[in-house]
């Protein structure tokens, strides 16, 4: 079975230059891989570095040590040392990301916010909007909101727009950062269905879920982040 | 004669004339290009044609016959004064007849009578830079000429059409010379622009205050700028000259009384007189009787 | 999608006497990419922008540009005529103060049409139709087409300046603090408009700004400058979310949280 994402010996710390250069170790020796069609979950208490790992995998945080090997464009690249341009290409074609919060863009309708990742990948606007409609429908976002910019939506509504935006593309790797945090039970179930559909399509998923119901329903296995605690390795 | 013995022929000293002739030659070699020159103080104020006078003074010889017109007329103060000036300082023959003249110094008109090879038309130019009102920096306008960046000139014409529905510029209408330099033809009415195109006469332009000379050699292309959908057009008049009945000439409005009475007559006085001598009459011709054109020989 | 950059900058330095304008700046810019250059006043970001746009000649270093015909040309070896032609066809320059980039005494329509006329368009009707189209794209009412920018608000002037620059379909646009001096609400609208245009037209842009929010919204990559040198560069969200250089950390931590 294909393994589109392999993480080996990744370490991350923050150097706080404004506090006399004190270094805060975050994680070290992070090693795992995700197979296609699998959903893995990062587990561990708050502050263990789950979010930091996810952000490194998306190129949002710099990586101090180690490799993040991604199957991209028919080859393998190391995301930890890739150029910004390569990272952008990986984000466009290979790794999708559903963040916790929607970064709203003023004056762009919810429908277009959802359709945008497809348009960016070259799909024509009409068919992108059609897919966006069907996803928003599935997530039970009232149709009267579709034409409105999401800035004024409730937390749950914004999150559903965000999930739709993240799930609309066919990225072979999908990172999920607490996508169900502010959803009700019915919509959590929809997300679980969406994850199942992605798995069936051969997507490798890695997520952070605080909601145990969702985690149990969606995850194939849990990666315990406490094993990568920076102090442990150093000690 | 004795009282002008202190002046050199044609007022300017020979070194100055050589300098100006060099500028003229350069201007002829690069049609439409504004050649800087060391403009001299002349015994008349700027704005009275000091540029044209210096050009004329530099090219005139004892055998030349000079005609001077101001807005087409030989008998206005400016024309009479400059003609008298050269009669005095160069002792040349002067005339009001376009056909007889070898040099015609003009302010704001080109004579109606077609010019011939060998004649020289000297324009008095107040502001030689056609781009000046759009781009005040001389450093920039010179660069624009050098690099042939003339989009700005069309901006002016665009503004005309946007504001008036047509190109409303009626005088100092910009032209492109020999497909290269955009040139201000001096504040002549655009009616005269077509006369510049492939004219057999040499056309010289002098701007005294701005210290520039430029030239259009004989048989040079002079094309008025325009848009494909707003082509260049000259002014038309809906009535002929009131004195000589001429059509297709440039007319001036003359006020006759305090009650709104007016007439339109040829701006080119010599042309008008010649036509009347030849028996042409407009509807008001009987009421006026102007002196006929004449040539005064050198003394 | 091409794998060649549009602009290659190598070891670019500009000195004013013994004072450093910018020093040893190296980067590539790809088609459709927006690069933000951030830093405080005096950090050299405007000097760099002026060197790149050939408004200023650098003291040393090279910058090459891939022309529309695919040929690479070294910017500082091109003749002035070629550079100026590039500047009004394939490039744009959006000034912080719109008055520096507009002709304040000619109409909005002529401001937009000037570049078309400069490259030889001689059909009034077509020029005007294009101007109308561009005014609507920057959200200026068609009935303002014959008004002079003097009668426009700051935000409208800036939008007009953008239309004037984009009308010839440039591939690279330089922007110097494009939202500086505007009210916050006007800024948001302009940024939104710029973001849309840049995406729709696939423009490459180099945006100089001291405003990290502008960088975040407009750019994919950024360079942080201090004392004429690039102290950090990378993906915009990486630099802002995980700043590494001491100066970048200071900049990021200095943002007022609302």
Please, could you describe this protein's structure?
The complex is a heterotrimer of chains A (235), B (299) and C (258). Chain A is of the alpha/beta class and 235 residues long. Chain A is built from eight helices and nine strands. Chain A is globular. In chain A, 43% of the residues are buried. The mean pLDDT of chain A is 90. Helices cover 25% and strands 18% of the residues of chain B. Chain B contains seven helices and 13 strands. Chain B has an eight-stranded mixed β-sheet with strand order 1-9-8-5-4-2-3-13. A three-stranded antiparallel β-sheet of chain B has the order 7-6-10. Chain B starts with 13 loop residues before the first helix and ends with a strand. Chain C has helices at 45-52, 80-89, 98-101, 108-118, 124-137, 154-166, 184-201, 212-218, 236-241, 246-253, and strands spanning 7-16, 19-29, 34-38, 60-66, 72-74, 91-94, 172-176, 204-209, 221-226, 229-235. Chain C starts with 6 loop residues before the first strand and ends in a 5-residue tail after the last helix. The longest helix of chain C is centred in the last third of the chain and has 18 residues, at 184-201. In chain C, a hairpin with a 5-residue loop joins strand 4 and strand 5 (72-74). Chain C is an alpha/beta fold and 258 residues long. The radius of gyration of chain C is 18 Å and the shape is globular. Classes of the chains: A alpha/beta (235), B alpha/beta (299), C alpha/beta (258). The interface between B and C is medium-sized, with 20 and 25 residues.
What order do the helices and strands come in, and which of them pair?
The complex is a heterotrimer of chains A (235), B (299) and C (258).
Chain A: E1 5-16, E2 22-34, E3 39-43, H1 50-57, E4 65-72, E5 75-78, H2 84-93, E6 95-98, H3 110-120, H4 125-138, H5 155-167, E7 173-177, H6 185-200, E8 204-208, H7 212-218, E9 221-224, H8 230-234
Parallel strand pairs in A: 3-8, 3-9, 6-7, 7-8
Antiparallel strand pairs in A: 1-2, 1-4, 4-5
Helix pairs in contact in A: 3-4, 3-5
Chain B: H1 14-29, E1 35-36, H2 50-59, E2 65-70, H3 77-89, E3 93-95, E4 103-107, E5 120-124, H4 138-146, H5 151-164, E6 175-177, E7 181-183, H6 193-196, E8 202-207, E9 212-216, E10 222-224, E11 251-255, E12 262-266, H7 269-277, E13 295-296
Parallel strand pairs in B: 2-3, 2-4, 4-5, 5-8
Antiparallel strand pairs in B: 1-9, 3-13, 6-7, 6-10, 8-9, 11-12
Chain C: E1 7-16, E2 19-29, E3 34-38, H1 45-52, E4 60-66, E5 72-74, H2 80-89, E6 91-94, H3 98-101, H4 108-118, H5 124-137, H6 154-166, E7 172-176, H7 184-201, E8 204-209, H8 212-218, E9 221-226, E10 229-235, H9 236-241, H10 246-253
Parallel strand pairs in C: 3-8, 3-9, 6-7, 7-8
Antiparallel strand pairs in C: 1-2, 1-4, 4-5, 9-10
Helix pairs in contact in C: 4-5, 4-6, 5-6, 6-7
């Amino acid at each position: 079975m294909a393994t589109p994402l392999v993480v080996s010996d990744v370490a991350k710390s923050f150097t706080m230059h404004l506090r006399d250069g004190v270094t805060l170790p975050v994680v070290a020796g992070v090693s795992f891989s995700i197979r296609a069609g699998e959903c893995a979950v990062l587990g561990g208490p708050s502050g263990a570095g789950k979010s930091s790992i996810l952000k490194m995998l998306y190129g949002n945080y710099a990586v101090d040590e180690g490799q993040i090997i991604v199957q991209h464009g028919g080859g393998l690249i190391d995301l930890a040392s890739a150029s910004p341009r390569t990272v952008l290409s990986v984000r466009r074609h290979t790794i999708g990301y559903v963040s916790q919060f929607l970064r709203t863009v003023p004056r762009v309708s919810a429908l277009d916010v959802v359709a945008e990742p497809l348009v960016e990948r070259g799909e024509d606007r009409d068919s992108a909007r059609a897919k966006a409609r069907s996803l928003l429908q599935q997530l039970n976002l009232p149709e009267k909101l579709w034409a409105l910019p999401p800035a004024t939506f409730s937390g749950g509504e914004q999150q559903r727009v965000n999930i739709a935006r993240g799930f609309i593309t066919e990225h072979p790797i999908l990172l999920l950062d607490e996508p169900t945090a502010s959803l009700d039970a019915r919509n959590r179930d929809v997300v679980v269905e969406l994850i199942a559909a992605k798995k069936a399509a051969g997507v490798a998923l890695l997520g952070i879920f605080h909601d145990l119901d969702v985690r149990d329903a969606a995850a194939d296995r849990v990666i315990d982040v406490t094993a990568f605690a920076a102090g442990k390795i150093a000690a | 004669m004795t009282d002008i013995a202190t002046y050199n022929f044609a007022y300017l000293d020979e070194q100055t004339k050589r300098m100006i002739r060099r500028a003229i030659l350069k201007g002829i070699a690069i049609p439409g290009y504004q050649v800087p020159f060391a403009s001299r103080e002349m015994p008349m104020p700027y704005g009275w044609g000091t540029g044209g006078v210096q050009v004329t003074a530099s090219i005139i010889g004892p055998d030349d016959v000079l005609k001077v017109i101001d807005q087409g007329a030989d008998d206005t103060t400016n024309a009479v004064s400059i003609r008298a000036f050269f009669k005095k300082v160069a002792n040349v023959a002067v005339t009001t007849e376009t056909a007889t003249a070898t040099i015609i110094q003009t302010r704001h008109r080109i004579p109606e009578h077609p010019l011939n090879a060998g004649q020289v038309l000297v324009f008095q130019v107040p502001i030689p830079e056609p781009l000046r009102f759009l781009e005040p920096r001389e450093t920039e306008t010179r660069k624009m000429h050098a690099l042939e960046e003339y989009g700005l000139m069309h901006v002016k014409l665009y503004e005309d059409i946007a504001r008036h529905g047509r190109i409303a510029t009626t005088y100092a209408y910009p032209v492109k010379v020999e497909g290269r330099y955009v040139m201000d033809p001096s504040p002549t009415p655009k009616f005269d622009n077509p006369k510049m195109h492939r004219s057999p006469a040499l056309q010289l332009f002098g701007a005294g205050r701005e210290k520039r000379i430029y030239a259009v050699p004989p048989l040079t292309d002079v094309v008025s700028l325009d848009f494909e959908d707003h082509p260049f057009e000259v002014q038309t008049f809906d009535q002929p000259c009131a004195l000589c009945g001429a059509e297709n000439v440039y007319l001036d409005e003359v006020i006759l009384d305090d009650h709104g009475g007016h007439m339109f007559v040829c701006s080119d006085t010599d042309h008008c007189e010649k036509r009347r001598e030849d028996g042409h009459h407009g509807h008001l011709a009987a009421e006026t009787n102007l002196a006929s054109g004449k040539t005064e020989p050198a003394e | 999608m091409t794998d060649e950059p549009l602009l290659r900058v190598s070891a670019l330095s500009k000195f004013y006497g013994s004072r450093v304008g910018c020093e040893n700046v190296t980067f590539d810019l790809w088609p459709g990419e927006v690069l933000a250059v951030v830093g405080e006043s005096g950090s050299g970001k405007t000097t760099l922008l002026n060197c790149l746009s050939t408004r200023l000649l650098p003291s040393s270093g090279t910058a090459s540009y891939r022309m529309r015909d695919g040929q690479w040309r070294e910017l500082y070896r091109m003749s002035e005529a070629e550079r100026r032609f590039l500047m009004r066809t394939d490039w744009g320059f959006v000034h912080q103060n719109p008055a520096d980039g507009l002709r304040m005494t000619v109409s909005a329509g002529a401001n937009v049409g000037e570049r078309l006329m400069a490259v030889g368009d001689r059909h009034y009707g077509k020029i005007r139709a294009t101007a109308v189209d561009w005014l609507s794209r920057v959200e200026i009412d068609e009935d303002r087409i014959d008004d002079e920018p003097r009668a426009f608000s700051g935000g409208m002037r800036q939008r007009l300046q953008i239309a004037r620059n984009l009308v010839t379909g440039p591939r690279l646009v330089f922007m110097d603090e494009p939202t500086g001096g505007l009210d916050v609400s006007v800024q948001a609208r302009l940024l939104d408009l710029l973001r849309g245009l840049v995406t729709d037209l696939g423009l490459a842009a180099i945006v100089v700004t001291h405003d990290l929010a502008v960088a975040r919204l407009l750019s994919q990559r950024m360079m942080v400058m201090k004392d004429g040198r690039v102290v950090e560069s990378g993906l915009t969200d990486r630099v802002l979310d995980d700043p590494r250089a001491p100066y970048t950390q200071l900049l990021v931590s200095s943002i007022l949280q609302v």
